[in-house]
Fold these 2 entries.
Entry 1:
Amino acid sequence: MVGRIVIGLAITIVCFAVAGRRFFWLSRLIRSGAPAKRPYQGLRKAAEAEVVEVAGQKKLLQWTIPGLAHFFTMWGFTVLLLTIIEAYGALFNQNFAIPFIGHWSAVGFLEDFFSVAVLVSLLVFTGIRIKNAPARKQRQSRFYGSHTGAAWLVLMMIALVIITLLIYRAAQENTGHFPFQGDWWAFASLGVAKVLAPLGTGVNSVIENVALLANIAVITGFLVFVSYSKHLHIFLAPINVGTSRRPRALGGLDKTPDMDMENISEDTVFGVGKIEDFTWKQMLDFSTCTECGRCQSVCPAWTTDKPLSPKLLIMGLRDNMFASADRLLSKDSGEAAEAETLVPTVIDPDVLWSCTTCGSCVEQCPVDIEHVDAIVDMRRYEVLMESRFPQEANLFLRNIENQGDPWGLGGAKRLEWTEALDFDVPVVTSSIPDGVEYLYWVGCAGALDDRGKKQAQATARMLHRAGVTFAVLGPKESCTGDPARRFGNEYLFQEVAKANIETLKEVGAVKIVATCPHCFNTIKNEYPALGGEFEVIHHAELLAHLVNNGKLVPGGGYSGTVTYHDPCYLGRHNRVFDEPRDVIDAIPGAKQVEMGRCREKGFCCGAGGARMWMEENIGKRVNMDRTDEALGTGADIVSTACPFCMIMLDDAVQASGKGDEVRVMDISQLVEESLLSGSAPSSAPANASDDA
Amino acid sequence: MNVVVCVKQIPDPAAPQSLEPGTHTLDRSGKLILDDSDAYGVEMALQLAEQAGGGDVTLVSMAPNGETSGLRTALAMGAASAVLVSDDALKGADALTTAKVLAAAIKKSNPDLILTATESSDGYTGTVPVQIAELLGLPSITFAKSVVIEGGNVKVQRQTESGYDDVVAPLPLLVTVTAGVVEPRYPSFKGIMAAKSKPVETVTASDLGIATGAAGQEITSVVDAEARAAGEIVVDDGDGAQRIVAFLEELKLV
């Protein structure tokens, strides 16, 4: 008895000391990060996230089977904390039971149920790991690049925790020390007890002692292992979830640094050049990653054979953080100055520039890591501080700077698209005329690109037809700065953004409708940080509203199959999923088919994150991958609601040689087509006849 | 090694342009930007100065209304300082007057090398650079697609219609560079910050001792260019490639 106490406590003290030392070190390391200057999101949102994402495992359950297995393992660990109390109690008193509830059948049942559930889950995990073994499936495996050895060890240790638990409980039953003596609600323990009973009380007594100590050893050993491995998420995930951006790290970028020349010096560093430039929250992100690879499996860069994997990026940053720990903790500025920048050694430039900022990784991550912000932070440093980036991007940056649009066509051409309209669009010169409801933010693509112009024209015609009044800025409009910002050129972004905000305020803009999801997202989510607060909606939302209210009634001129492609910045980043689908549904002859990757899981077209303006020389083209999927649905029309998606998808459809069979159209063009050859239903508004 | 780069600040080529009614010269009263074709000279100068182990890159420009926004772009790329000649009396100056003004301004820095573009993207006379060289009594090499300094000499690959000539000349001299001689850098934020405080010396024609009399040339009239005739549209009936080759042969291009 005394031996059992001494051994048990010795193991515990040693393991707690080692793990405690490690956790103290980790906490110092993470807290050495830069301050995270984000507005406090409030306890309520954090609590909600803990309930939904940690307790409810919502993001994990997006994938049903691994999600369920994880659900039971996570809850197993929580419920089995009771057995840890029981184990330590039993060290001192063989007849120990938890006060008050210790003999309840329900407790015994829960403990046994979760023991078995965890074992079953472990079998599922084993199956998943064998099925997706990176050794065989290479890059196709979401575990490619993860520490699979450590993962197997984790599975084994969890299994040992449960096995030793069930064995000592069974032996306790046979020696009469079990808190749920003879209670068949503790079904698993009693089941194993039946097997062990023939060995006799003496042997069972030995088994009880050995298995109990083994159980304590495995648990405390596991604690040490966790503190040194990717399995840290057990403790860090709830903290990371509680401190992450809410509702999610999508939409606008996290940081808007003050770039006012008055407030900065030549020593000011923008973006992240070295690991210490990341905030403590980002360092917590790196430490929390559990290498599950869900992000990797949905990344448009990785799945088209590019070197960027969000998982490997985060792992690389974590490894660098640990390797730089002495420097980070000493806070020696001289040492920091001499340290190498993350790019190009730790993060390869091809990795950094492959990101389309589509946000799939952020959407998937069960522990709420904010990958996109980290990538843009590093891009900012590369562009602003080092002027080190793919050279072909020079052109679009200069064009935005000098001509106000990435194509470099200039403001003078921004009204040409209106020439094809058979009604006048008011052009705002001083202020928005009375009686005009919306300012139509056409966007560079809508005003200047041939395919974009058709989209803008169709949108304008449909709004006009529904009686919506709108005006445009024409030459006064300029790029919102989205591509410059996502490319990392925060300075250029803020220059154009401030100018645009000034223009919008000057003309008295209140309600803005945009056809480009990038413009929409930037004005809606990013201009407020620079003092521009406007009510912004996307034309998909406005069209849906008009269709639902009967102000715009699609006709019978189209019949066929349509598949809708979610633009990342409309769907995932801004949660507009239903509206465009509602519009298509309102067209009597249109049958919708969904692609496998749709809505929250929509796959990028390849144009986001300023990728539109860069060469794509590595791997399969993202737009071809997406278009292959769209063509696979057998749809006649690939519909979308973003001019950049239209350009990317249309190019890919043409390149696939299907240009004669399949058309790429904006939802506004689709509505317009339905009205062309067919007769509009009688409920159409009075001004419907001036179209067609 | 000290290098002077002549840079022109021009009206935004993408914005609608207009001519002054009396003089038929380009209206330069709006915002001016750095002529894209001058970015190559600035980059080349920065690289040559760096390879030579130091030395300053000085910009020389002539523009109305004390305009410096284009100069700031070039300073942000890394040039050390600028001399701006801004004088109402120089409004509508012809190529020779411009060359005299620039030559006088360049002389002040006594450079080892002068770089310019082959021509500006607004006036397109293409005559100022060699006039400057002549006025300074220096040799000049035009249309450089590569510039290398070796000892006291400049080795230039001079673009020709059929290829390029290797030309060597001793310093100091003037070289005009083509687009493509080097890829201009995009200014870093550090560069943009630093550019705000770099010295820009603004001088007038009389400061340089240039008499601003009547121009030696004037534009008497301007006529619209003839509209281009529509091209021939060929529909590919499977023989597209052969017909393109035949067309190119006709032009003696292949």
Entry 2:
Amino acid sequence: MYLYDQYDQAMVDARVAEFRDQAQRRLEGKLTEDQFKPLRLMNGLYLQLHAYMLRVAIPYGTLNSRQMHALADIADKYDRGYGHFTTRQNIQYNWIKLEDAGDILADLAEVEMHAIQTSGNCIRNISSDHFAGAAADELVDPRPYAELLRQWSSFHPEFSYLPRKFKIAVIASDTDRAAMRLHDIGIQIVRNDAGELGAAFYVGGGMGRTPMIAPCIKEFVPLDRLVTYAEACLRVYNRHGRRDNKYKARIKILVHEMGAEEYTRQVDAEFEHMLSQGIEPPYAELERIRTFFEDPLFEEDASADIDRSDPDFALWVARNTHAHKAAGYVSAVISLKPVGGIPGDATSEQMRLMADLAKDYSFDEMRVMHTQNIVLPHVRLADLHALWTALEEAGLGSPNLDTIEDIIACPGLDYCSLANARSIPVAQKISERFAASGKTEALGKLKLKISGCINACGHHHAGHIGILGVDKKGVENYQLLLGGSEAEDVSLAKITGPGFDEAGIVDAVETAADVYLREREEGERFLDTYRRIGMAPFKEALYG
Amino acid sequence: MDNLSSENDTLIRYRDDEPVDHAAVTVDSFLDQSSASAVRVEPGDDARELLPHLDRLSLVEVNFPAFGDGRGYSSAQILREAGYQGELRAVGDVLVDQVAYMRRCGFDAFDPDAPLNEDDLETALSRWPEVYQSAADKRTPIWSKRHA
């Protein structure tokens, strides 16, 4: 994985000093809260309902055991002994004191981490495929391109006060595991007919209150022009993005209102101009970054045999591992979705265990998934049983990847000052219901996503089943949505009809699941059945 | 507008020449009259309209009515990329925590609504030992040093 040189370290250290100075001036009253707010946000510090929340960047979700240990130490030292892994592949702490923030950033800098641009109206932490560098189906490892863009976007002088937040995802596989087309810019590394690598640019996607699927505006940008093209995309957005209404300020609204064709024309004109400006790092820099992402030394004749005689282990292997490019290896997913638990939460003890297991079994590397689980990317099949045994003992062995128990949920009204309804208790009740009824297995792949307000941090538009919490005359109410997908078959979910109360929404999810079990044809996922039969049978069962 | 910048004690300049001694006009007025040599760019103005006339401009003021509106950074970059050598002055809600980025985008003068603390300003401008991007200030980016 990428390691800092003296330059990267100097930048992060400078940021720590800058933030300490800014926080001090705030405490002295030299900065108003309005002036301080964007500064603290650009260091990941939010004010929530009960305390400050600090969001720490995990670039493209990759981290090593030393970093995970540091995250565990921060949880113990400054928070309540746990952290929450997020849909941006980051981690956030929910009980932070403003006075401690500078010290936390300093602790992070010790292990080449930071909270730079994890919030605010700037280019956010760049996300990627959680199986990058491991997946059997990828063209190349997408992370060197994400790292190149990370450096370009860090402290960008022109694009730090954008109309609104800006999220970029980079993938390099036709299978989209990063919700690429639901980003402000989604980049897919592709190979053209001449055999050269390049980047396809999808611009103007997003969730939030007006979900949009990004159109492809450029099918092939040569790799030695990647930064320049991204810069052109941002400049046109900075010029024309709406500033009169924060709910219409994202680039998706601009691309939609201007039209993808006209937006692309303006980007291309800006790009032509910028080519003479010398803003593209030399290709040697991309090659330097690539050296950090070379394959670890996989064992050449690693055994492909696996003893599945223990049914619990066999189930975990079937559900929680992913095909690897190296024979005898898999990527193993540690579920942070225990039945009845809080999706994405991990205690400091669990973080330390995951770190140690990564060191023992996965070349010292972990990934955070946007679905709020942890991946050990490179595990020998021969080590899987020992890994699973250790996870089971720590309560981390839930065999529920991509099932209805593998729920994405935003923090909701338990923490968030924007929320209209709680998300976490609904997630807990649904996973308990389906685990108890035993239907989880029968339902197979079913992505359920819950947001506690229309800002859609829980990705409800992209759920096979989505739940949106709203406020109905002072009472929490939950709308049910069906038919969304964040993957390569991307689609936006549709609302079924009137909402439900907390008990009612759990029943409604089960009703929808039962329609699928009744109607499905061989090999169909819930999403496939929905797409074939449409909304009517579900409405009939829910409201008939 | 009558608050001539030469009489303004909040004005900070990083240039050796004398400040322009007349007020800046709007972009529309500037494009209508050939005599003006100072113009004020508002956030909604397109700085590219000025590019054919750079040779007769000595001062471009870029207004920041609210510090969170970042359009002025692009306006500055565009002017410098086109070769504008005259004074580029950030005016309005210009705060010490934004001046380092403004310098990077080519601003060489500041006329803030509220005076900047000199110590804080010096700290802010000397904060960053390195930069990741090529920008109008022509500082050598990290990627260039790595492959020198």
